[in-house]
Write a structure and sequence with these properties.
Length: 625
Amino acid sequence: MSIHIIILVRKLYFIFLSVVLHTLSVYSQTEHAVVEYYNENITVTKKGYLINDISYAITIFNKNADRYATVRIPHSPLSPTSRVRAYVTNSNQEIIKTLKRNSYSVHADNTDYSLFTDRKYKVFRLEHHSYPYTIHVSYRKREKQYVQITDFTQLFYSLPCKEARLQITTPYGFFFNHYEDSVFSLSKQYKKKEIIFDWHATNLEKINRHRYAPSPLSIVPKVIITPQQIRFDKPGSFKTWADLGDWIYRINQGKYSLPESEVRIVTNLIADVECVAEKVKRIFYYVQDHTRYISVSDKMGGIVPFSASYVSSNKFGDCKALSIYLIALLKQVDIEAFYTLIYSGGIRPYRFNTTIPSFAFDHAIVAVPINGDTIYLDPTTKYSFDFRPAHVSNRYCLIVKSNQNSVLQKTPTLSSYDVQRQSTVNFTVENGILQGTFTKTLRGYDYQLLQSIQTNTPTQVRQYYVQNFIESGFDLQSFSIDSKERDSTNIRFIYTAQSRSLVHTFGNEKMLVSIIPLPINTLDVDSLYVPIDIFMPISYADSLSFVIPEHYSVHLPDNISISSDYGRYIANFYVEHNVVYVVKLFELFEGFYGIEHFSSFKEFLSKSKRSDIQYFEFINNVTDL
């Protein structure tokens, strides 16, 4: 090799290195880490196997992003992973650390409501203490039976990504449905025996989050690929949602039989009842009282349910098995009910793309038509029959029926009253101490949280968990949880507490008493290019009373009323029989708003929050001479 070529190569290397270092410098000034690339290379073999080679690299600029040095690779019997490779490079692209073969641990996935509960993770950590460093990871997944080719997205959506690429190689005659967001460009190569599809995107921005933002999965750029013909247990099709429903229906056939002893029990259970809703309620409570929710997936159990007779014998099951069991019991008394798939992960709904049929679900529940309406029951929960949990509200579900009658539809949203946190508080002031007796009626997600605390935590540690329901500035003295009767859709939290910080005295002349504020959460950012998703209403209603101390008069704030397209804030103040009363209401309406609403939405929250900061001025009418 001539000296001129060597010099040219060296120049090109240093130019490349300077570009890399400049890019790193730009990102390091604004981000803790950046995804260099995220790639999936999928091959569909002639026999229909799915082989997916996944690789990515993340550059970590400081210790705030060292969490990305811990790698979790999903692994299950249906989708085993192999060829796990990983190494670390420094800023000069030199390899400084390599993952030793099989030096990872295997952890179970403890997701409560997963249809794929036999999934585990291969976990390892490759950390370096000199910044920046880049961790490179690659592995292979192989699937013989599958219902989804990929739901491709840049996995680390909280980080910016320089490049994302999905490549799929298929033999001729293999057909699939696909959807891609506009940031991805699609190209195709037609070869002698195969077609290569290539989706490519560069400079993907990180997904910014705020308190009222949609689920990241709802807005992250993605490519969805589903096979037109399903290769899993029984043949099926993804051409339409009705086709997908037909396939699920066939998988579940033959699983609804029950022992005669159980049939007699359920028949006797509703023998004295005429009302259909009451029959359904009794059977729902019977399932709650006689079964436990537990993950029992094995092999194809991630999608294929265990039978009703299995649950009847063992008294436990996962979401699919318990749903099959509840439907079987209802069928025995001639009540129509339908197996229903839904995405329940997280409180915020995943607003998946409904234009392309896909297996976008992680939970099974039961839909029961009653008197022209449909109720949705989750047999894995211990909630009241009339209670509608947040994780099955205002989100799409697939109601499974036979003969092309399956339907994708949205479950009802919750009303403001369904979620309202209602507080009644009686206050007295003495010796500079504000003493309060609180009664909070909790509904919606608050009900779920407090019911879980009452059911799942030991009495001696319960006080630690209820602190989230105590107003700031107050010291908890005593509390009790009153869940009322079984059919109640709310739970009461009763407690006493006192505060010294909310009372300010000025000699013997006057004192200022701060009025406890509503928990209005504002946005502390100037602008974020993320929509606003109020997936269920937010409602706080306070009724407060303050006994006016002897010899004092009171100066009241003005009444307040704020209304907008997003919600409302109301505060009224009045005196009766030497008691000051405060009635306050804050509501956010259910709705999905584009980024053009961000400023006005933020201003409504800020104005409501500012208006809610009020105090009483108590004036002493008796002065010492």
